[in-house]
Amino acid sequence: MSGKIKTSIVIDRSLWEEFKRKVSEERGLKDVSSLIGELIEENFSDSLIINVLSELIGEAKVPEVLKPVKPLVETDAGRAVREMRDGEV
Length: 89
Fold this sequence. Notes:
Elements: H1 13-27, H2 32-43, H3 45-57, H4 77-85
């Protein structure tokens, strides 16, 4: 993402105060802006990924919709990680 902007929003005062209180308790009051940025990024992560991929591969076509891929065989990630940690793999 390039640069930053300052913006304003119209929101219910009690909702905003509750949001700021919660953020300040968990992350400090100065982190309100960065948390809002993170929330926006999470909701637009597909667009961000597409933009980065477009920059990386140049003129090649990038799909507009990213779809999750299901494994061909049933897997148990927890078991696989446990085996790796225990040195069985």
